[in-house]
Amino acid sequence: MCRWHGATSERPRHGTPPLRPVSLWRHPAAPAGCGRCGGQSVNERRRRMRLSAALHVVSHGVAVLYCLLTLDQPHRGKMLVMYGCGMAGGAVGLWAARRVTTKAAGYRTSGVIMMVTLVALALGSHWDGGAAAPAALGFVTTVVFVATQTPGLRLMIALEVLTLGTYVGVAAVGEPMRPGHLFINVAGMVVLISVCSTQARKVARQRSQLRALATLDPLTGALNRRGLAEFASTLFVPRCRPGPSLLCLDLDDFKLVNDRYGHAAGDQLLQTTVAAVRRTVRPDDVVARIGGDEFVVVLVEADAATAQAVTARVDAAVGQQAGVSIGWATAPYDGTTLESLMHAADQRLYRVKQEKHRATGTHLPSRQPDTLGVLP
Questions:
Q1: Three-state secondary structure call for residue 246
Q2: Are the C-beta atoms of 321 and 276 separated by less than 8 Å?
Q3: Which one of 165, 226, 322, 343 is at 20 to 30 Å from 375 when CA atoms are compared?
């Protein structure tokens, strides 16, 4: 029997602790362990790649100008060719950043850019006279960039160790340095790494908190309308894979719960509804609350058959707490945008409600102009 709409007038127990919202440090559209995005949005990944490639072009451009200003020095021909190739590689990185959508592809592209940078720094510094040469100042730029732009702490430490190791290697095979020169240079770069990485991660946490406030429903931890629209913007692109599919959920007689048991009980019901849906769908799928008792579930790469199967499972899971009506839609058959899919799912949801009211002999009010599928 429905916990909230059963025949008994007994007030529901409130011993269940309130659900904690999803972590504020990771956007729910990119859950931990998600192989598709790895905790970063596609736009954030592309931004990092563009910045890395742009710095690659600019730094090698500065090195080219340095070589042109010192053409009378040895090895300038080889250095010009190498730095010119580095600029070309950065331009390729800018082109690739517009097309990367997966975590693996982003890591591969960024890894290639990093390796090219270290090779160019090592050879350029060696040809210019060793670790004390002007060309070796590029190592400082590299450690600062890695400290501020690498998302993972372990990856950042590994890249910084690799960069400092390359610098020490250049010092070992190049011209001898004055006593203490190598130590003070390495120590200075370590201090830079510590300061820059600490500040960068502090800013990243603050940005993540602000992002969560803008895209999450504070009561349930589900996405709000803005978060749903942002997440969906990366899904509706030409692809050979099925879906996405979308479910629209509406709790039956939710107003009666608030009137009979109070708003605290209504809030608890909303929380348990989101928790039940999350236990039913996959980690990559997303739950959003778009109205008082209206929810949307985005099923990534799910065809119509999968959408109908998930609809039945969600109905059973949520139905243990309260009555629910669900409509589903699948791209591209029901639409190719978030709005069109929400409209199609809402129409199916309304037909489900009509059947329920027809079975109980009650009247379902006629539909008002559809607003469910319109996002601000």
A1: strand
A2: yes
A3: 322
Structural domain for 70, as ranges:
42-214
Domain-embedded: residue 300: yes
> Could you tell me the CA-to-CA distances from 83 to 54, 70, 74, 79, 94 in Å, in that order?
14, 14, 15, 6, 17
- Residue 353: which residues within 8 A CB-CB, separation 6 or more? 250, 252, 325, 364
Radius of gyration (C-alpha) of the chain in whole angstroms: 28
Asked whether residue 4 is assigned to any structural domain, the reply reads no
Region 35-62 average pLDDT: 74
Question: DSSP for 39-51?
Answer: TS-HHHHHHHHHH
Q: How far apart are CA 254 and CA 250, in angstroms?
A: 9
How many folded domains does the chain comprise? Answer: 2
Please write the tens of the pLDDT for every residue from 283-301: 889 999 998 889 999 998 8
β-pair type (245-251, 294-299): antiparallel
Ranges of H-type helices in 70-130? 76-97, 103-128
Q: Which two tokens stand for residue 155?
A: 């990856």
Which residue, among 266, 345, 274, 349, has the nearest Cα to 314 in the 3D structure? Answer: 274
For residue 102, tell me if it sits in a domain: yes
CA dist 204 and 25 (Å) reads 9
Residue 324 main-chain phi, psi, to 5 deg: -145, 145
Whether residues 230 and 311 fall in one domain: yes
- Indicate the pLDDT class of residue 139, thresholds 50, 70 and 90: very high
352 and 232 in a single domain? The answer is yes
Measured CA to CA, the distance from residue 157 to residue 338 in angstroms comes to 40
Last residue of a domain, one of 168, 193, 214: 214
pTM of the model: 0.63
Q: What's the pLDDT at 367?
A: 53
